[in-house]
Amino acid sequence: MTRRDDLRVDKALQGADFPADRRTLLTYAQERGADEETLEAMRALPERTYARASEVVDAVPQEPEGDRPGGVER
Fold first, then answer.
1. What number is the average pLDDT over the span 31-42?
2. Into how many domains does the chain fold?
3. pTM, full prediction
4. Other C-beta atoms within 10 Å of 1: how many?
5. Following DSSP, what letter does each residue of 6-61 receive, concatenated?
6. What distance in Å separates the CA atoms of residue 25 and residue 52, rounded to the nearest whole number?
7. CA nearest 45: which of 29, 37, 32, 56?
8. What are phi and psi of 64, to 5 degrees?
9. Which end of the chain is more exposed for a tag (fewer CB within 10 A), N or C?
């Protein structure tokens, strides 16, 4: 996942009601038409209840940017 994933998740959750668990947030993002990259990042979130969107964004797993996992040079 990358920093852009953080931004995509934040955008996908605009207007969501909190607290909410991962499954509820995934459903919300799907219903709002989030793209597959955003949904993939959200599926990697820890299974828990989040009090606010910023907690979700902070929980998005990070990986160095690159063409392949591990941050391979572009």
1. 95
2. 1
3. 0.78
4. 20
5. HHHHHHHTTT--SSEEHHHHHHHHHHTT--HHHHHHHHTS-SSEESSHHHHHHHS-
6. 11
7. 56
8. -55, 145
9. C
Are the C-beta atoms of residues 47 and 21 closer than 8 Å to each other? Answer: yes
In Å, how far are 3, 23, 48, 67, 68 from 20, measured between CA atoms?
Answer: 22, 8, 8, 32, 31
Three-class secondary structure of residue 62 per DSSP? coil
Q: Residue 67: inside a domain, yes or no?
A: no
Question: What is the extent of the structural domain holding 53?
Answer: 3-59
Side chain identity, residue 68: R
Q: Is residue 21 in some structural domain? A: yes
Residue 25, judged by CB atoms within 10 A of its CB (0-12, 13-18, 19+), counts as buried
